[in-house]
Design a protein that fits this description.
There is one protein chain. By secondary structure, the chain is of the alpha/beta class. The protein folds into four domains: about 180 residues, P-loop containing nucleotide triphosphate hydrolases (Rossmann fold), CATH 3.40.50.300; about 190 residues, P-loop containing nucleotide triphosphate hydrolases (Rossmann fold), CATH 3.40.50; about 210 residues, no CATH class; about 55 residues, no CATH class. The chain contains 22 helices and 19 strands. The longest helix has 24 residues. The radius of gyration is 26 Å and the shape is globular.
Length: about 700
């Protein structure tokens, strides 16, 4: 590295939006192994090893790779399968499935891969590796590791029949899509339709950034799901106690004042923006130079690791790994040094990793305390994966955080649309992570026969048969919440969605741009006239119908109610934990107490009350404290101007609601009613009649 040119410093203003800060018990459960060497998640997955189609939804660092090893070895030995093919998204992740001496920890055999069959370590292109897949299928060897691309090409060349009686294990399963253009998804659909393979799918984020379904509803229904939540994972750590999630706005150039958020004392992975992103200067190397300049004086490049050695003003020498480097020789040396197994437990091996597209999925640096990302990444999925880099448990590591640096929208600039989109995506990511980090919600209707659930604590005074109750099981990380008027799912698929897919439904909801825009900037909190039910009833209902087209109307309603309840209870818990005196945003460390307090304050939870809450109200309140007031007004004006009228599709929903209202009240809803929800029902029903008269529903 050459001597650094000094750049003129332009001060930036970085405005903090309060973190989602979650504190955990550290009971050690998720890191304690049983007599077979299995941790809690792995044991849970192994209990379902007999399933033909198994989906493991579990956070990064929870041990999915080893869970697969246990299951795969049992399928080979006891379930009559011939071979195992492990499919990973990129070559670097193949190392997660290297040889593992499982018998040392009590299991009955070891995981061993013949070196030539770990195609992630074999030089050459996909064409040659596809031939290797063919040779493996004809051999007596049992385990093959390859990339998604190699597997796709192999299916194209050999057909699906050659994979009969084999286990296909797909890591980072969110790369699959039900979209016909997704080749891996299409191949898996064919394999499932033939029904001669076993499939184990693993993911830490079972949703896609493009909001596409991962599997078709028909295929998804065939999978048995093992879910291990973030709450269970972090609550069961020995060392890591708190996790903060935050996004920050800045003006100017982020590189000029990076130390506002980057602490040299923290082990950090810094993802700089893509060169095409608005946060980028267009010169990624210059940005890396500026970051290094901000940290201190460059000393030298370590000849063995390729790490930059930089001396901070305090005299500390920090080691910086530059993965942005274009020279493949230099970059590969740095990458190899980061993966050196001898350094895995060495906290002092490296201090800061600067990356662009690397160091996300499958990258295991247990000491990482801070995942810092500049600019909005490609998807919510990517953000969850990046956060996962900082959630490894390690000795002496009690706190970790994720920070997303976003350029503040300036409605006076030509790129305002792009800026607003990035802001909305950052907020959506924050809302999603609040949901992901919360304990699990189980909802039940409140009836005269309702009783306390065993293992759940119902707070001071215990279970009250006369009101709705909120119980919490600390060990399992689950809420048991009673709600009046809650619809029950009728089909098995609806039950599965209510149990396993609520976060995926919420993800699709917060990724729906018109919904997010309306909720943030047209709600009462922003001075707008939005009726909350427009989002909670109509928009959420439409999203569920689109995602699960086979569900009956009653099942759609059951799923809708639970998704809205899960999101709104999390948001209200966040609200009530703020200091009511100063109304300043504080750390959201009390989701459990917040849910209980909200439920107690309203006395009885009913679905109409929950539907009447704008799910984005608190997000706007936080945004208003963090953004420049003028910018916020300009952005709100841009978005509010795009309000669209009632669509024919939405009118159908409103007409059904109006019909139900008439049955319950012996009158039709009125446009002059004091209740804005009733007004909207009347408006929607009128629109439906107009559309029907126009023949809109005859096509």
């Amino acid at each position: 590295m050459q001597a650094k040119k000094k750049f003129r410093s332009i001060r930036v203003s970085i405005k903090q939006v309060p973190s989602v800060s979650v504190t955990y018990a550290r009971n050690g459960a998720s890191t304690t192994s049983n007599e077979f060497g299995m941790r809690a998640m792995q044991e849970r997955a192994y209990e379902r090893r007999g399933e033909q189609y198994l989906l493991i939804k579990s956070p990064p660092a929870s041990g999915k790779s080893r869970a697969l090893m246990f299951i795969a070895l049992d399928k080979l030995e006891n379930q009559g399968l011939k071979q195992v093919i492990v499919v990973v998204p990129e070559k670097s992740i193949g190392s997660s499935f290297n040889d593992e001496p499982l018998s040392k920890s009590g299991f009955w055999t070891d995981w061993a891969v013949v070196p030539k069959w770990n195609l992630c370590n074999v030089p050459g292109g996909d064409d040659g590796k596809v031939g290797a897949v063919g040779r493996f299928l004809e051999s007596d060897d049992r385990i093959l590791i390859c990339t998604h691309a190699t597997f796709r090409f192999a299916v194209d060349r050999f057909g699906i029949e050659v994979f009969d009686d084999r286990l296909i294990a797909v890591d980072e399963f969110h790369h699959v899509s039900a979209n016909p253009d997704n080749k891996l998804g299409a191949h898996l659909g064919q394999l499932i339709a033939r029904d001669r393979v076993h499939v184990v799918a693993m993911t830490g984020s079972y949703f896609r950034g493009d909001a596409e379904a991962v599997l078709s509803p028909e295929d998804e229904s065939k999978f048995d799901t093992v879910t291990y939540t973030y709450y269970e994972q972090l609550n069961g750590y020995e060392h890591l106690k708190t996790l903060d999630i935050g996004y920050f706005f800045y003006t100017g150039s982020y590189a000029n004042d990076i130390l506002a958020v980057l602490k040299p004392s923290e082990k950090t992975i810094l993802h700089i923006p893509n060169v095409n992103a608005r946060e980028s200067t267009g010169d990624k190397h210059k940005e890396v130079d500026r970051i290094i300049d901000a940290l201190g004086k460059w000393q030298e490049t370590d000849p063995v690791t390729g790490f930059h050695l930089v001396k901070t003003p305090e005299g500390q020498i920090i080691k910086i790994a530059d993965l942005v480097e274009d020279d493949p020789t230099k970059r590969d040396r740095v990458s190899a040094a980061l993966k050196d197994p001898k350094q895995k437990n060495n906290r002092d091996h490296v201090d800061l990793i600067i990356a662009l597209g690397m160091a996300k999925e499958g990258f295991d640096w247990i000491w990482c305390e801070h995942a810092l990302t500049v600019g909005y990444r490609a998807s919510l999925t990517e953000i969850v994966q990046i956060i996962g880099r900082a959630t490894r448990d390690a000795v002496g590591k009690t706190h970790s955080r994720f920070t997303n640096l976003i350029a503040e929208p300036d409605a006076s600039e030509g790129a305002v649309t792009e800026a607003i989109n990035d802001t909305l995506k950052a907020i959506a990511a924050s809302l999603l992570m609040e949901q992901v980090l919360a304990p699990r919600f189980n909802f039940t209707p409140k009836t005269a026969a309702s009783i306390a659930e065993p293992g759940f604590q119902y707070g001071e005074g215990g279970y009250d048969a006369e009101k709705t109750n909120v119980g919490f099981n600390e060990d399992s990380g689950q809420f048991q919440i009673e709600i009046k008027g809650l619809a029950e799912p009728k089909s098995k698929e609806a039950e599965r969605i209510c149990q396993e897919d609520l976060n995926e439904v919420i993800t699709a909801f917060v990724q729906d741009k018109p919904t997010l825009e309306r909720g943030l900037f047209d709600g009462e909190q922003a001075g707008g006239e939005l009726v909350a039910e427009e989002l909670t009833v109509v928009r959420m209902g439409k999203i569920i119908k689109d995602r699960y087209p086979e569900l009956e109307e009653g099942d759609v309603e059951a799923v809708r109610q639970r998704a809205v309840a899960a999101m709104n209870l999390t948001q209200q818990a966040k609200r009530v934990t703020l200091d009511e005196g100063e109304r300043e945003p504080t750390a959201n460390t009390a989701l459990i107490d917040g849910v209980r307090k909200f439920a107690m304050d309203v006395r009885d939870l009913d679905i109409d009350l929950i539907d009447s809450i704008n799910p984005f109200g608190e997000a706007y309140n936080i945004l208003a404290k963090s953004m420049n007031e003028q910018s916020l007004r300009q952005v709100a004006s841009v978005i509010s101007a795009k309000r669209s009228p009632i669509t024919p599709e939405d009118a159908v929903t409103w007409a059904k609601r109006a019909s139900r209202f008439k049955k319950e009240n012996d009158r039709s809803p009125s446009m002059t009613a004091a209740d804005p929800y009733e007004q909207l029902m009347a408006e929607g029903a009128t629109a439906f009649m107009r559309f029907r008269k126009e023949g809109r529903y005859d096509r």
